[in-house]
Design a protein that fits this description.
alpha+beta
Length: 258
């Protein structure tokens, strides 16, 4: 069985995989046997009582003779950092819509790196402690907690923002507040946009699974989640909603082959 097959159950989403691979990248530096041992512990249910809090993850890892207490530590963002992060994310319509749907857009950290932030651990940021006698980080018990956390992130990506100091609801409320604020949003000059770059795909579009649904006449989900956009009056908002509904109807017609 390949290494990917052995670990694929820990990290079904891109954010879960990224957390897992950050750990496995240490294999070039640390003795390899600890990671397989950690995977085995995680897979057999040895990790229990996982708790994610701002700045720390704690759990118990049960072995044949005793349980070990493990703590992983990650610095939280300051309030000023979070204000900067929210402004950056709210400025990208696609990012804001994905977050409001409970997802992390795959290039979210590209956007945050532009303001010198990252949701995922940077080099040297993530530490671990364990009550076992191993002196090198991460021990097999800490590795097991890493793997289980990857699965937990699959179910709830906002555990990652909680680690950095913001739970889901306060974060989404801040996103909505910024997007519906009165300040005029920055808009790029049309004559500086490159049409070809705007529609450049990163991969084979034909490989993307598509599951279209017939439009039901309601406000498009992304627009409903985002709410009214700052700097756009009510009449313009209604026109945008109508345009979105028309686009959905047209897309359905094309999908049917009409």
């Amino acid at each position: 069985m390949s290494g990917e097959q052995r670990t694929e159950s820990f990290g079904a989403t891109w954010w879960g995989r990224r957390w897992r691979r950050a750990l496995e990248s240490l294999g070039a530096t640390y003795p390899n046997p600890r990671l397989p041992h950690g995977r085995s512990l995680a897979r057999t249910g040895a990790v229990q009582d996982l708790v994610v809090e701002p700045g720390r993850i704690q759990a118990q890892v049960h072995g044949p003779s005793k349980a070990h207490d493990v703590v992983l530590a990650l610095p939280v963002f300051s309030d000023a950092d979070w204000e900067t992060a929210v402004e950056a994310l709210a400025g990208r319509l696609r990012h804001a819509a994905a977050l409001l749907r409970g997802e992390l857009p795959e290039d979210v950290d590209d956007t945050l790196r532009e303001v010198d932030l990252s949701l995922f651990p940077r080099t040297g940021e993530l530490g671990s402690t364990c009550t076992c006698t191993r002196k090198i980080e991460p021990c097999a018990h800490a590795a097991a907690v890493h793997y289980v956390l990857a699965s937990a992130l699959d179910a709830d990506p906002f555990l990652l923002t909680r680690l950095r100091g913001r739970d889901r609801e306060p974060l989404l409320a801040a996103l909505r507040a910024v997007r519906s604020g009165s300040a005029e949003p920055e808009r790029p000059a049309i004559d500086r946009l490159d049409p070809e770059a705007l529609f450049t795909a990163r991969g084979d579009l034909a490989a993307i699974p598509v599951h279209p649904h017939q439009p039901d006449g309601r406000v498009p989900e992304a627009l409903r989640l985002l709410g009214e956009i700052r700097g756009i009056d009510r009449e313009s908002w209604q026109q945008l909603v109508s345009a979105g509904q028309h686009a959905r109807n047209r897309a359905w017609t094309l999908a049917e082959g009409s």
